Amino acid sequence: MNKIRKLLEPDFVVELFRKEVLPHYPMFKDISRVEIKTYKDLIWETTYHVVFRFNTYFIKATGEEIKVPIFCSAHSEESRENIYLALKYLRAAKFSTASIDIPHPLFYSEYFRATFYRGLRGENLLYYVKKKKFAMVTTIVVAAAKVFARLHTLPANSEANFNPLNSNIVTVIPGVDRILREVEARYHGKYHPDLQRIYYYFIVQEESFRQSGITLTLIHGDAHPENIIVTAPKRVGLIDFTDVCLSDPARDVGGFLQQLEYQILSKSKGELQADNLKKLFLDTYLAASGQELTSEFQARIDLYYNWTAIRSATYWLLKFGHNEERAEYLLNLVKQNLKM
């Protein structure tokens, strides 16, 4: 049996949490039970990539039960210790403020290659886009811009590079070469020439910017509407720290702008709303980070906007239940942007 399936056994999880989690909460005397929900359950014979939620019921001295959501992110081929270390670093750096929440790291298990953390409660930005609640979307977009600006201004050095492979386009997992091979094999070369030329352009452009001496900062690495959570009135949370690394802050900005636009256009067809919200996000980010929109910074944002679109395109080409129509829309958008 795949060892990760032990984490789907409630009795096993309760005993694990009594040992690893209960000491973090001296106000509780025991754990009575857990309810398990799977968000991602890719489990094969010996390998796995999973995200589980454990609604964990702690018992107070009075006998009252308190439910606490605890999450697990695990991957058999990629250690998830980087998530644990990134969250610990951010808490020590006081990234959380009166208006920003992040998950609370609990422990890392080398046996499961899993990080366990106390999660956040709330709906994400994409939820409000889907519901077409654009007054709320506007508020969240402003808050998100400030979150990323704060992240990018935190002190960071090489020790804070929690996922070095994620720092450069060419090595972001699973790697450009593997993406090109898999798309070529599945579609018999149909998309290969375009994707090969586009990725080559991205890699050369990124290296050129790096050679110019730009300052690398701590970035989230997966900035999109699903990772911004409304946790309370006037409070937002940032989640999913798998890709945190040292890189160009324009990557978070360009990536978020592309995903915000894509989700609004696909969920509500609001082109004008997308343009206005993108401008609002960028203006707020620049003001919060104390930057001006130079031509070079705009070019870097454009690079990562287009790269994010291509990442989404290859996702739609390679995922189970692929969608060539969505992939071709994004591929043609990037070709138009790059004048190819």
TrEMBL record:
InterPro entries: Aminoglycoside_PTrfase, Kinase-like_dom_sf. Residues 55-257 form the Aminoglycoside phosphotransferase domain. Coiled coil: none annotated. Pfam families: APH. SUPFAM superfamilies: Protein kinase-like (PK-like). It comes from the Bacteria. This is Aminoglycoside phosphotransferase domain-containing protein.
